[in-house]
Design a protein that fits this description.
Blueprint (H helix, E strand, L loop, with lengths): L3 E4 L2 E3 L5 E7 L8 E7 L6 E7 L4 E3 L7 E6 L4 E6 L8 E10 L4 E4 L3 E5 L2
Parallel strand pairs: 2-11
Antiparallel strand pairs: 1-3, 3-8, 4-5, 4-9, 5-6, 7-8, 9-10, 9-11
C-alpha cells in the first residue's frame, strides 16, 4: 500500500507562485503514472497534470504554460510548480499514483489546500 502526503499549499495572491510536493512511502520506480488533480468546492475532481514513467507530461488546458510537473522516483517525490496563479486555481490539490489501473493499484493523497485570493 503506497502512502502519499502532499505539502506546500497555502494562500497566495493572484500572479503569485507555489510549489507543491508529494512524498511517497516507497520508491515510485515502476509506477506507470503520477499526477496532480484538484477539486474546487462544488466541482468534480479534475486532472491538472500527469507524468508517465518515461517523463512524458500532459497538462490541462487551463494550466498549460503555467504549471510544471516533475517526478523523482528513487527520491519518492512528485512536484508541481505553479506560476502566475489565478483565482480559479483555488482548490484542494491531490497527488495520485498509478502502478496498474487494471489491477486496481491506484493511490491518492489526502490533499493540500491552495487558495488564490487578493
Amino acid at each position: 500500500q503506497l502512502q502519499l502526503v502532499e505539502s506546500g499549499g497555502g494562500l497566495v495572491q493572484p500572479g503569485g507562485s507555489l510549489n507543491l510536493s508529494c512524498e511517497a512511502s516507497n520508491s515510485l520506480t515502476g509506477y506507470y503514472a503520477m499526477a496532480w488533480y484538484r477539486q474546487a468546492p462544488g466541482n468534480q475532481r479534475e486532472l491538472v497534470a500527469k507524468i508517465l514513467s518515461n517523463r512524458q507530461a500532459t497538462y490541462s488546458a487551463s494550466v498549460k504554460g503555467r504549471f510544471t510537473i516533475s517526478r523523482f522516483d528513487r527520491q519518492k517525490m512528485l512536484y508541481l510548480e505553479m506560476k502566475d496563479l489565478k483565482l480559479e486555481d483555488t482548490a484542494v490539490y491531490y497527488c495520485y499514483a498509478e502502478f496498474s489501473a487494471a489491477l486496481g493499484m491506484e493511490y491518492w493523497g489526502k490533499g493540500t489546500q491552495v487558495t488564490v485570493a487578493g
